[in-house]
C-alpha cells in the first residue's frame, strides 16, 4: 500500500499531539517508556516525536535528581511556561486580572476596586491598572500574552459588545474587544461573567468533569448560566440564563425577603444577607422563614432551567454560596415540587476568583484549538497575533 507524504506528515502531527496531551495530562515529567505506554506508540516512534518536540520548543528534558543509583532514565515535561494567557473579571465592585501558564497555573494577579457608580472610562482604566499589576508581578509584557478572555456583567454578544446590563448605569454598549485590542495584540474573547464562573466550576471546581450543569449566581445580583456537553452555552445573542427577567420567578425582588427580615434591621442592604443567614444558622425563626422565602423564589427560575436541560448538577455560586449550610436544604425542598428529578446541588468552593479563573480557562481553550487540536498548527511556541481586519 502506498502512503503519501501528506499522510505521513499527518501521522507525525497526530503522534506529536498525542504525546503533548499525555505530558500535559500527567502534570509531571514522564520517561520515554511511560510516554510510550500513555500514547501506544513504539519506542522508536516516541524517540522521534520527543526529539522533534524538543527542537520545536514544546517539551524539555528534566535534570535527573542527584544521588540516584545507576544511570537515570531521561524524563521530559511539557513546557507550560512557554506561553501565558490573561483572564479578567470586570465586576461591579472589583476588577481582577490573572495570568496563567499553558497548564492553567496562576502566575500573578492584579486587583483594583470599583463601585456600581464608577463611570465607564474609569472602570476601563481600573481594568488597565489590574492588567498592568498582573503583568508587572509576572515579569511579562502585553506582547507576551498568547490570549486574553474577559468576563463582564450583562449580556455579551458574539462580537464581545455588552448589549444589556442593569447593574452598571453606563456599561451597555461598551466595546471591550476594541479597548483591549489597543493594548494587546493577541486573540481576545469576551463572555458573560456567570458563564465563565460556570466554566471554572466545570473545569476546576465542584463540578469538574460534569458535562451538563446549571450554575446559579446567588447574591444581590442574581444570575445563571448553562454548561452543555462540557461547554458554556452562549445562545444566539448571549442571553442564555437570563430567566430572572421573568417577573413570575421573583428573582428581581427575592433579596427583599432577606433585607426586610428583623435580623437585618438597621443594617445596610449589602450586609443584610450575611446577618440573616447567620441568624438562621442559630435557629432564629424569622430568619429561617426569610431564607425559605428566598429559596422559594430562587427555585422557580432554577426549576425552569432544570426541566429544560435535565442537568447532572446544579452549582450554587455567588456570595450567598458561603451560607450553603443554611440555604441548600430549603432550596432542595423548594425545587422538589417543580422537578421530575432534583439534581445534586453543590456549593462553589472557588470564591471570588471563580470568574477570572473561568476567563483563563476560556483563553486556554482557544490556545488549545489553535495549537493542539487536529485542525491546529503545531508550530513552534510563539505568541499568536490577532488577525488583521480586511
From TrEMBL:
Transferase found in the keyword field: yes
Keyword list, A-Z: Kinase, Transferase
GO MF term set: DNA binding; kinase activity
GO BP annotations listed: regulation of DNA-templated transcription
Pfam families: HTH_IclR, ROK
InterPro entries: ATPase_NBD, ROK, Tscrpt_reg_IclR_N, WH-like_DNA-bd_sf, WH_DNA-bd_sf
Domain (HTH iclR-type) ranges: 20-60
Family: Belongs to the ROK (NagC/XylR) family.
Record protein name field: Putative NBD/HSP70 family sugar kinase
